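Entry 14. Structure prediction run on the chain below.
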Amino acid sequence: MTAPKPQPEADVAAPQDAGAEAPETLSFEAALAELEEIVEAVSEDRIGIDELGGKVARGAELVRACRRHLDAADVEVTRVTEELAQLSLRESAARGAAEEGEPVDGAVGEPDDDGVVPGDVPF
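Output returned:
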């Protein structure tokens, strides 16, 4: 009887590996790269059955880490986009008011009878 051919070891860190970095400390790109390595190793049968569970668990941790990065990026992009939209609305309103000759908030105009210039801060 012949012994089963040993599977080559995957070059991927498993959760039980002492050198495996915690997924929450990895950048999105590093977590994704490691996840891609695990998927490739599994699909090419480079992971033995004894380490498969650990690799799948590590992959799940990496997926969650990537999702957190994507969610955080989505929140930031939405925040910046909304700020830009508000700025654009204010600028459009200011241009419209200026075209109609109306004073624009924060614009410095001519002094009134008391010598106060609109838009000046009194302190």
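The two ends are 96 Å apart (CA to CA).
Filed with the rest of this week's runs.
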